[in-house]
Design brief:
Blueprint: H1 8-24, H2 31-47, E1 123-130, E2 134-144, E3 149-160, E4 173-185, E5 189-203, H3 209-212, H4 216-220, E6 225-239, E7 244-256, E8 261-275, E9 278-293, E10 303-319, E11 323-336, E12 341-357, E13 361-372, H5 376-382, E14 395-408, E15 413-432, E16 451-472, E17 475-489, E18 500-509, E19 514-523, E20 526-532, E21 543-549, E22 552-562, E23 567-574, E24 582-584, E25 587-588, E26 593-602
Antiparallel strand pairs: 1-2, 1-26, 2-3, 3-4, 4-5, 5-6, 6-7, 7-8, 8-9, 9-10, 10-11, 11-12, 12-13, 13-14, 14-15, 15-16, 16-17, 17-18, 18-19, 19-22, 20-21, 22-23, 23-26, 24-25
Length: about 600
């Protein structure tokens, strides 16, 4: 067969059956058959170029096997004809001793300086005296009855013999009070009782300009003394792990030398529990007031007043790390038996505080309100020169909304800025009583030298700012100021209310022995209204005058010296600028006042 007669396709057709046969034939016994088969195919191919196709049937199935595999050992055996033994090496060290002069010092623990335990004395006494014959005396004594019970006594006396230049009436005063208290702290509750009495004497020395120039006979006939006597008792009860948390109750009596009298009874229980993990608080406010004045300012009738106020104030608190929310309201029923009148009020009570930047910036705000029961006791405490002829009624604060920012600019400097707006019905304002005619028998307060109370509807916009600097326990400084804008109805002016008020105060320790402090108060202009029956206008009209009270600054300071742990000496200065300003119309204050004394701590 020549090379031309066997092309590529013929070779593929011829080899394919052969490949199939070789896959099926794996044993040696078929090797001869395979060779004969190849020879027959070759001869046939030489005889005929068209080989065609052939079917091959494999009788024995294909069953491949895997021959044994040999794993190489990890540590092969080395068959080396040259093996060299390791030589043994022997060596010695030449040691030379070296002399050393270093001697380590023994460690010693640093001693901690323990602060001296400050002994707390149970009693102290203070006594001081100054110009204007001012006298200050205080005494406090505590007795430990048992580990849980204590009893204490407190006495205070503050008086002055007066001596303000230019006055024609006596301006002396004194204030003396005595209190006792008992307290007990048990495992699940604590309670306390306090009771006391107080005696005060003031003089209506602020004569009007007309009576300031009166004859000595008229001046000598004026009995300007006004005395108050009051007594009180109050109690406190606190419970642990109880829905009833605490309660306070008090009763107070006030009388004066003009047969005036007043009783005031208060009770304030508080309850607390959780609802769905939210703290719920319920406060109850009970306030009963009954009093009378022997006469009104026109000396025509007796003045009686009686009020019973019952309030309920529930609230719900929500607290997180940065947010504090309290939402509630107060419902008040106010009854006036003297006038057969009953009123019902509802006030909001919402407060929110949110920490914006740690302690640096905290935003807060809220809106609330309430019924404030005015009393003769509160009026005479704020203005001791009121006449015993007052009209008493509660003040209805419809709402008081406020918002502000507070925080710490540094670790030592704190600030507070707040704006507020309030609306009050029947807000109490002081104004001077009108001056009566000289041709009649007058009481000591009817010479244009006393004050009465008028009521007005007042809307007040206020802005307050505060800064407090506390560098250390040895020095602190604070400053605050308030601006008020009043919108009035029922009265033309906000009588005796200042538009601007500010104060600066500080305390410091100069050394371990010396300490002191200072304060400065500023009060802006105020307005009052005066009417006289002695200086009529033409045609018989009464004389009236709008009075402008100048602003004033009151500077005060004190300095102390600790002689030892028990005894210390002090000196105090008041109104150091020497300004005889008028806090109330026709009432100049004492000038520079210097008072010195000593305090002594002791145990029985």
């Amino acid at each position: 067969m020549n090379s031309k007669s066997l092309n590529k396709s013929n070779i593929v057709q011829m080899w394919s059956p052969l490949e199939a046969v070789c896959r099926a034939c794996r044993s040696k016994r078929f090797s001869v058959v395979i060779l004969l088969f190849l020879a027959s195919i070759t001869l046939q191919a030489q005889e005929n170029e068209n080989l065609g196709t052939e079917v091959v049937n494999i009788v024995k199935p294909y069953s491949p096997t895997l021959s044994d595999a040999f794993k190489i050992k990890e540590t092969p055996v080395i068959n080396d004809s040259l093996n060299t033994d390791k030589k043994e090496v022997k060596y010695t060290i030449f040691s030379v001793p070296v002399a050393s002069t270093f001697t380590p010092a023994k460690g010693k623990a640093t001693a901690v300086e323990k602060a001296k335990n400050t002994h707390l004395y149970d009693n102290y006494a203070t006594l001081g005296a100054g110009n204007y014959l001012n006298v200050l005396a205080e005494l406090y004594s505590n007795f430990e009855i048992s580990r849980t019970d204590n009893f204490g006594i407190y006495f205070k006396h503050n008086s002055s013999q007066g001596g303000i230049d230019g006055l024609r009436l006596d301006d002396k005063f004194y204030d003396t009070k005595l209190e006792g208290n008992y307290s007990s702290r048990q495992k699940d509750m604590s309670y306390g009782i306090k009771a006391g009495v107080e005696h005060q004497i003031y003089n209506w020395y602020g004569l009007s300009s007309f009576y300031a120039g009166a004859s000595d006979e008229v001046i000598n006939s004026i009995d300007s003394k006004h005395s108050y006597f009051s007594g009180f008792a109050e109690g406190l009860l606190e419970m642990e792990d109880s829905y009833f948390e605490k309660a306070t109750a008090s009763i107070r009596y006030l009388g004066d030398n003009f047969s005036s009298s007043e009783f005031n009874i208060k009770a304030n229980p508080e309850f607390g529990f959780d609802v769905l993990d939210f703290p719920v608080n319920i406060g109850v406010d009970l306030d009963y007031l009954n009093g009378k004045f022997d006469r009104d300012y026109s000396n025509t009738s007796e003045l009686k007043y009686s009020f019973f106020n019952l309030g309920l104030a529930p609230s719900v608190d929500y607290l997180t790390e940065d947010l504090s929310v309290s939402v509630g309201f107060e419902a008040v029923v106010s009854m006036d038996p003297e006038n057969s009148d009953t009123n019902f009020y509802i006030y909001p009570n919402v407060e929110v505080s949110y920490r914006l930047v740690d302690e640096i910036l905290i935003a807060y705000g809220g809106v609330d309100g309430g019924l404030q029961q005015n009393t003769y006791y509160d009026f005479k405490d704020e203005n001791p020169f009121v006449s015993p002829t007052l009209l008493i009624t509660p003040t209805h604060q419809q709402y008081y909304g406020f918002a502000g920012l507070k925080g710490k600019l540094t670790n030592t400097l704190a600030y507070n800025v707040k704006a507020s707006y309030s609306n009050e019905k029947d807000k109490a304002l002081y104004t001077v009583n009108h001056e009566k005619q000289l041709d009649q028998a007058l009481e000591g307060y009817e010479y244009g030298n006393s004050f009465y109370v008028v009521y007005a509807d007042v809307s007040t916009l206020s802005v307050l700012g505060e800064l407090n600097l506390e560098l250390s326990k040895n020095f602190s400084l604070g400053i605050n100021g308030t601006y008020n804008n009043f919108d009035m109805s029922k009265q033309p002016e906000p009588w005796n209310l200042p538009t601007i008020e500010a104060s600066v105060f500080s305390s410091f320790n100069i050394s371990e022995k010396f300490y002191g402090g200072a304060s400065l108060f500023f009060v802006g202009e105020r307005k009052d209204f005066f009417i006289s029956e002695n200086e009529p206008f033409p045609f018989g009209d009464l004389f009236s005058e709008l009075i402008i009270l100048d602003s004033y600054i009151d500077a005060n300071a004190h300095l102390g010296y600790r002689f030892n742990q028990q005894l210390s000496f002090f000196i105090k200065g008041s109104n150091l600028l020497g300004d005889n300003y008028q806090k109330w119309t026709n009432y100049p204050v004492q000038g520079i006042q210097i008072l010195g004394g000593a305090s002594y701590k002791f145990d029985w």
